[in-house]
Write a structure and sequence with these properties.
The complex is a heterodimer of chains A (257) and B (305).
Chain A: H1 2-14, H2 17-42, H3 51-59, H4 63-76, H5 85-91, H6 96-129, H7 135-165, H8 169-191, H9 195-201, H10 205-211, H11 227-252
Helix pairs in contact in A: 1-6, 2-6, 3-7, 4-6, 4-7, 4-8, 6-7, 7-8, 7-11, 8-9, 8-10
Chain B: E1 3-14, E2 17-28, E3 32-37, H1 43-51, E4 58-63, H2 69-75, E5 79-82, H3 94-105, H4 111-119, H5 135-146, E6 153-157, H6 165-182, E7 185-189, H7 193-197, E8 202-207, E9 210-216, H8 217-225, E10 227-232, H9 235-246, E11 251-253, E12 258-262, H10 268-277, E13 282-287, H11 292-302
Parallel strand pairs in B: 3-7, 3-8, 5-6, 6-7
Antiparallel strand pairs in B: 1-2, 1-4, 8-9, 10-12, 10-13, 11-12
The chains are: A mainly alpha (257), B alpha/beta (305).
Chain lengths: 257, 305
């Protein structure tokens, strides 16, 4: 497995995909802060050119991290089956278990590096260009990222499992969107009428880090700010990680190429 | 020679359809083993099972004498293969693709990459993205990857498909060299039987998921060498006659009533004399060598094991 992981790391380092995603995301967050900064020249009393406002954009869209986790895996392992590279790995003596675990670990590592780089650009550019104290909102954002991290890892593992299961990357992306976003949202909608369903929906990452987060400046509620909420974030994250890892391993062992 | 690949009653089912139905083959070290069969005969399925890409529904397979699942996985590191088409990352360069697989296989020494590029005459294209390679170059790259780690067996599924004539000659020469100089056992399938005829030292003929026959090239040449076609006025009486007179049992009556006598026991004159003595008219009499295609078709028709 170590050799497989080393080879994957070599490929990612020598390929363009990770750099491309990191570059694009960094450019987007930098552009967002530059636009906020530029608005102060247009309107003296522009109220949103603050670090807190800029960083709250991600804070209230934590589910974006889930989508980006899926995109990252899709880009890194696009058409792995179609290209015959997965076949080669098995022919070379890698077990299916090693492939699944190796891909999951490498994807998580690549994702963390990408996220760290983008966050540096995001928080750094906000601190440099925008008004107000940077430390407090930065810590709030980082706390939220840490709370969501187990769920992000779980979703990356799900994306790897789906990518190995479906021969076409596009099919895997559709399945990913259905499992991560569509099903929880449907449950949340039904939950508006039936309380037990709402409770069930709240144990899905997309609902916990999406619907259940209050919208600034109307509502400051964030689940991870309370001890119980933090614990729920961890249980949801690690729970789904276990579910996706077991399901992915079970399925990976049976996949025929 | 020891047996490096052996299957016993190997079966692969997809629902009710048996892609492989009780396949028995044995490949000995140093052979060039040609697998002959139509599309859907089960050649690729057999290769997939041997390489661990699919799981058998029944039967047993051994690689280097080992048959337990964990042992098979370990022994597969001694096998190089191209199944269906060479697999590589299209956006990575030729050199980086080989380096990627060198790391994956745990082959020590980066110089291996340049040696393989040299061997496959791909040095000039080492920085080219794989998606921009010609079909012949892709096949050579696939072979380079398969050769990483000095495998003892190469399993190649249709290695000359899509190649131009010079590419075919090149791959053939290369495979012969690898077999001769490095002692690599080669198992390959091909639709191009004439091409296979120039390479294989042993053949297995497959049809509908079953092995019809496994035969050495020497034996096959002997079988194909002698074949007499004789068209007489009464084919039925004639076959009964030579069965009785010459003990000839290997023959086939073709649709146009020509009697094809395989591995004839007598001279061509004796067969014609037998017909003449019984007052039968002879419309055609010729001795020829059967092509591999014809042998396969005959075998399929007879369905013998």
């Amino acid at each position: 497995m170590l050799n497989y992981m080393k080879s994957e790391w070599y490929r990612i380092v020598h390929g363009k995909e990770l750099y491309l995603i990191t570059g694009i995301l960094s450019a987007v967050v930098l552009a967002a802060n530059v636009i906020l900064y530029a608005m102060t020249f247009v309107e003296d009393a522009f109220p949103y050119a603050s670090v807190r406002f800029s960083l709250s954009n991600l804070l209230y869209m934590m589910t974006m991290l889930f989508a980006l986790g899926g995109v990252l895996v899709a880009v890194l392992y696009a058409d792995d089956r179609k290209n015959g590279t997965m076949k080669n790995a098995i022919v070379h003596g890698c077990s299916r278990t090693s492939l699944f675990i190796g891909k999951s670990l490498i994807s998580v590592a690549a994702g963390l590096i990408c996220m760290a780089a983008v966050l540096v650009v995001y928080i750094g550019s906000a601190a440099l260009l925008l008004e107000g104290p940077a430390a407090e909102p930065a810590v709030e954002l980082l706390m939220a990222v840490v709370a969501a991290l187990p769920s992000v890892v779980a979703i990356v593992v799900l994306a790897v499992a789906l990518d190995g299961f479906f021969s076409k990357t596009t099919t895997a992306i559709v399945a990913f969107a259905v499992i991560v976003f569509a099903i929880p949202q449907v449950l949340a909608l039904i939950g508006l009428r039936y309380e037990p369903i709402a409770e069930l929906a709240s144990w899905f990452p997309a609902v916990l880090f999406g619907n259940d987060v209050g919208v600034w400046p109307l509502d400051f509620t964030m689940p991870w700010e309370q001890l119980l909420g933090w614990a729920k974030c961890m249980v949801v994250g690690f729970g789904w990680l276990a579910v996706f890892a077991v399901a992915g391993l079970w399925r990976a062992r049976r996949v025929e190429l | 020679m020891d047996t490096v690949i052996e299957t016993r009653g190997l079966t692969k089912r997809y629902g009710d359809f048996a892609a492989l139905d009780g396949v028995d083959v044995s490949v000995r070290r140093g052979e060039i083993f040609g697998l002959v069969g139509d599309n859907g005969a089960g050649k690729t399925t057999l290769f997939k099972l041997l390489c661990g890409l699919a799981f058998p529904s029944g039967g047993e397979m051994r690689l280097f004498g080992e048959h337990a699942q964990a042992d098979l996985e370990r022994q597969r590191s001694r096998v190089g293969a191209i199944i269906e088409q060479p697999g590589f990352y299209p956006n990575l360069s030729v050199e980086k693709n080989i380096e990627y697989y060198r790391i994956q296989k745990g082959v020590p020494g980066k110089q291996v990459v340049s040696e393989l590029l040299e061997l496959m005459r791909l040095t000039h294209a080492k920085r080219r993205a794989c998606k921009n390679l010609s079909m012949g170059m892709k096949q050579r790259l696939g072979l380079a990857m398969a050769l990483l780690g000095e495998p003892e067996i190469l399993i190649l599924d249709e290695p000359i498909t899509g190649l131009d004539p010079s590419g075919i000659v090149e791959i053939r020469a290369l495979l012969q060299r690898l077999n001769r100089e490095r002692g690599i056992t080669i198992v390959l399938s091909s639709h191009n039987l004439a091409e296979l005829e120039q390479l294989a030292t042993t053949y297995a003929f497959m049809s509908h998921g079953r092995i019809l026959e496994q035969v050495s090239a020497e034996r096959l040449v002997a079988r194909c060498a002698d074949c007499i076609d004789i068209a007489v006025s009464d084919a039925e009486r004639y076959t009964a006659l030579f069965e009785k007179s010459f003990g000839q049992t290997r023959y086939q009556v073709l649709p146009d009533k020509t009697v094809r006598i395989f591995d004839p026991q007598q001279s061509i004159e004796a067969y014609s004399a037998l017909a003449s003595e019984q007052g039968m008219g002879i419309f055609k009499l010729e001795r020829h060598r059967m092509s591999l295609e014809q042998y396969y078709l005959d075998l399929k028709e007879r369905g013998i094991a």
